[in-house]
Amino acid sequence: MNNRLPVLLGLISFSILLLAGCSGDTEEGSDVDSVSAGEAQLPDEITMSAYDVGSLGYTQVSAISDAIMSEYGTQIHMIPNDSGLARLEPLKEDTADFGGRLGDETYFAFEGTEEFAFPEWGPQDIRIMAPIMTHYGLLVLDDSEFESISDLEDARVPHVIGNPSVNVKNEALLAAAGLTMDDVEVVEVTSYGDQPEMIAQGEIDVAGMLTSAASVTEADELHGMRWLDHSILENDESLAALNDIYPFGVPDETDIGGALTEGEPEEFLGYTSYAPAAYSNIEADFVYNWLVALDETFDDYNEATADMYVWEVDEMQPEPLGVPIHEGGVRFFEEKGMWNEEYEEKNNQLIERQEQLQEAWDVVSEEAEEQGLTDDEFSEYWLERKEELVDDVE
Questions:
Q1: Residue range 319-347, pLDDT digits in tens
Q2: In a domain, 394, yes or no
Q3: Most buried of 76, 217, 241, 329 (most Cβ within 10 A)?
Q4: Are residues 290 and 240 part of one domain?
Q5: What are 27-57's pLDDT values in tens digits?
Q6: Domain range for 243
């Protein structure tokens, strides 16, 4: 036994060295070691930002990470955060390669609005890697007097404190029906997930929710819930009014989620900003190969949640809306036959808009310094000047 111990220890050490892979680097121009099992070529290590532990976004990205680690041997590290700004910061500081599934903070950061309208942020040169379709709508009790969005005049509509992603969608849906926030009674609430229960308690009349939210299913089982009629989004004029406020929005059907019946899909606000995203300087080959890996391992993670089907490539919607598609994503969708000249033109327009935003930010920053503006004054001044200095994308 004593004679065998050094040999055994040597074999264990050698095995550890074989399994330990060198740390990968996805910075542009880097020469990374990669491992592969199929067509994808991935670095040995990847770090991604993600939604907080316990969220749907975290659950989905965890399942994807497990499948890719198992297939390719790549070590994937996740940085979970519960706010949009905190999810973007690791990308900005180069401590994460990309966001595994970010939300509307991608759009706010691209434009330099909401929490990104302050001197330490401003417009960010960010790109969506693969637009994933998500469904959002307005929910009421079964016995509610409200049937469609157009009926909501004077209704008690929530404003979720600290959640601009929800609030902007509610404002956009009202706009599609020719209403504004001034036409409803705005009720400030502190929790997105508590909205269905607040309806049941008579505190609000309607809730803006993801169809996949667990609290919708729970409230439906307890109280009986239904979704308002969103078919108005099929009207071109209504959709244009919505897109003036929220450019990602498109009408899209689903039958998966709370207060829905399988086989009887309903129309919702579909949007594609709840998706993986990266800064433009992340190497195109990395983005391309990540998407290849997503595609190749889909069968390994597709049952992790009920709506995991949105990650199937055929379900993705690569039309550039609000934020450009990353160069690596364009290459991937071109190979899949899902890219066209219209998308290319829209993508180039959005890239040009980012350049204008950066130029406008420099102008405003210089003007603000000359005027001695505070951070809060700067934010308001920037948003005013932005409208004057930056052309709208047609």
A1: 999 999 999 999 999 999 999 999 999 99
A2: no
A3: 329
A4: no
A5: 333 333 443 445 899 999 999 999 999 888 8
A6: 134-270
